[in-house]
Amino acid sequence: MKIVVPIKRVVDYNVKVRPLGDQSDVDLNNVKMAMNPFCEIAIEEAVRLKEAGTATEVIAVTVGKSDSQEQLRTALALGADRAILVESDSLLEPLAIAKALSKVIEAESPQLVILGKQAIDGDNNQTGQMLAALLNYGQATFASEISIDGDSASVTREIDGGLQTIKVSLPAIITTDLRLNEPRYASLPNIMKAKKKELDVQPIDAMGIDTAPRMELLSVELPAARQEGIKVESVEELVGKLKNEAKVIS
Amino acid sequence: MQDYNTDHPFDLTLSEEQQMTWDMLRKFAETELRPHARQVEEDGGPSNELLEKIKSLDLIPLIIPEAYGGMGLEQDSVSNALALEALAYGDLSLSMSVSVPLLVAQIISEHGSEEQKGELLPKLVNGSIFHVGLGINNSLLSTDPYQSDVTAEENGKEIILNGSKTGVAFANQANTFLISASNESDECNLYFINKDQEGVTLEDKDFMGLKGAPLSQINLSNCKINASQKLGGHNYSINYEALVDSSRIGMSALALGVCQAVLDYVVPYTNERVAFDEPISNRQSVAFMVADMAIETEALRLMIYKSAALKDLGEDFHKQASLTYRFAAHHAMKIGTDGVQLLGGHGFTHEHPVELWYRNLRAIGIFEGGAGV
Questions:
Q1: Chain A contact for B28, CB < 8 A?
Q2: DSSP-based three-state secondary structure for A249
Q3: Of A155, A159, A160, B233, which one is least surrounded by beta carbons within 10 A?
Q4: d(CA B299, CA B294)
Q5: pLDDT higher than threshold 70 for residue B245
């Protein structure tokens, strides 16, 4: 079984982002970039399926600028067998990314596509679903448990107030939630080996897809600074303030 | 005379592998090592579970030659220093539980005789041996670092060792020790000793820091070993000065990781801690202290990577390594104590890690190498 894992290069989760001076976008100058944490979970799951003998090949794919190769190398160090970069000079919206991914998936024809439920930069939570629609594949989103059984997958999903287990026919799109697994650290020998693995670069322009943006970013602002808390003298005072000032109780 | 050789400028751009290794080890240090630092200190060493996680990074098999089951990817000094800095950012004691076995594996790979390599390297690869007590420090901590106060009388087939080594990390968990000793002609070499050999006693010592990397004293009294137990074989002599110098670069890199941890801890603290209606970082006495810390940390970084780069270029790095270690010893202690000071009363409590870092950094000024690469 072949598994394709689309991943994304995002700002490292430890970085406190700021808007650019003109508020036109987030300031990405000299900011540490990393693989989106949900994508790490997707890679980990695919690699575990390979280690368990269920999968035979894991292919990491990303759509982005040339520097996204760094994250593909990380995916290779974590255990992916080869990688594909669909190179684009501009930042793309989820629909354009899904279209590019669908072209790669059509060419590779994997039995399973595992990707993060969302990326921590735009928090769009759209690519997986759009990809399923474009390919006309079944989808199982927010997976916290995956088991493959012949030509179908049983996926436990995290939904409001509980868990739901569904069965999807393969090929299918699965998006990963936080609790699916705990990604490993790449061992040093695997980091060294990653450089020797195949990394194919395909220009997005050759794919014949419409990548024009559907949205316009108007401005990016920091959230309003939170006001400093106060200390109250007594329970009565607290209840009074909750009633009359915060108006959260009556 | 300024001796900067413009033919050999050093380049601080990381290779792709170095960057990936750095990112991975830094994350490992922050999420797997630092949260356990207190527990490890209390327990006097990492739990088996934590040690297994550390072993799974496969740092040691990486550098062992393929003929002995390793990957044969010799790490250059810059990569080594980067790895140690990244790990020490989590915890100094825990990073020593990697750095000491790593240094031992490197020493044996580079200097061991065929017999010694065949005996030990496969066991280091498969993990059946992890700790080897490495004794490069002297028992009198202020003596010449390029000499050993253990003496070796080499009489043909037999060698008699006398003296003590102190501050040998994880010796209490090792069955084999690798100890430096000076012979009659004042040449310093390393010798393998088995724990149960006659004339060997181990004394556990309690130190103010590095409690998670238990340090012991090894006493040798008329300890007779076979000439083949000399590192490299009975006719071999090691470049001991270069070994100590490399070790000093490693120790400095470990110190650097902790200094960076202190700096990254005090910056948000002093910006958020409000006294007299404003963040304490608005006070010049605080701001200057933090600025000095940042300058010294960065200077130490440049000195370390210049030493490592010179070594990798095959240049003489003795002077640079000595300057670096001196700078590390002096400023790491200062950064540690300033860290405690900047947190005020909080710095003195166990609630914040700064006092632990301070106690560990204090060791850098005491020990001459031995724990690094």
A1: yes
A2: coil
A3: A160
A4: 9
A5: yes
Contact residues of A toward B, CB < 8 A? 34, 70, 73-74, 77, 184-192, 194-195
Tokens standing for B161?
Answer: 């060792």
> What average pLDDT score do residues B356-371 get?
76
The answer to whether A73 and A21 are in contact (CB under 8 A) is: no
Amino acid at A181: N
Tell me if A188 and B62 make a contact (CB, 8 A cut-off): yes
Residue type, B5: N
Residue with tokens 């897809």: A209
User: Which positions in chain B touch A192 (Cβ < 8 Å)?
Assistant: 17, 62, 71, 73
CB contacts, 8 Å: A43 with chain B: none
pLDDT digits (tens, 9 = 90+) for A193-248: 999 999 999 999 999 999 999 999 999 999 888 887 888 999 999 999 899 888 88
Instruction: Summarize pLDDT for B137-186 with one digit per residue, the tens.
Output: 665 555 677 878 889 998 888 999 999 888 888 888 899 999 999 988 88
* Three-state SS letters, chain B: CCCCCCCCCCCCCCCHHHHHHHHHHHHHHHHHHHHHHHHHHHHCCCCHHHHHHHHCCCHHHHHCCHHHCCCCCCCCHHHHHHHHHHHHCCCHHHHHHHHHHHHHHHHHHHHCCHHHHHHHHHHHHHCCCCCCEEECCCCCCCCCCCCCCCEEEEECCEEEEEEEEEEEECHHHCCEEEEEEECCCCCEEEEEEECCCCCEEEEECCCCCCCCCCEEEEEEEEEEEEHHHECCCCCCCCCHHHHHHHHHHHHHHHHHHHHHHHHHHHHHHHHHCEECCEEHHHCHHHHHHHHHHHHHHHHHHHHHHHHHHHHHCCCCCHHHHHHHHHHHHHHHHHHHHHHHHHCHHHHHCCCCCHHHHHHHHHHHHCCCCCCCC
Q: Count how many residues are written for chain B.
A: 373
Give me B345's structure tokens. Answer: 């009363």
Asked if the C-beta of B52 comes within 8 angstroms of chain A's C-beta atoms, the answer is no
Evaluate whether A61 touches A90 at the Cβ level (below 8 Å): no
Listed residue (B24, B20, B47) closest to B36, CA to CA: B47
Instruction: Mean pLDDT check: name the lowest of A1-5, A49-53, B128-132, B177-181.
Output: B128-132
Q: Which three-class secondary structure state does DSSP give residue A215?
A: coil
Task: Choose, out of A66, A74, A76, A191, the residue to mutate when testing the contact with B (most B CBs < 10 Å).
Answer: A191
- pTM of the full structure: 0.86
Q: What is the ipTM of this complex?
A: 0.78
For residue B149, how many other CB atoms are within 10 A of its CB? Answer: 18
pLDDT band per the 50, 70, 90 thresholds, residue B373: very low
CA A151, chain centre distance (Å) = 25
Question: What does the block give as tokens for B261?
Answer: 């941890």
Helix, strand, or coil here: A5? Answer: strand
- B 32-51 near A (Cβ less than 8 A): 32
Cis peptide before A203 (omega within 30 of 0): no
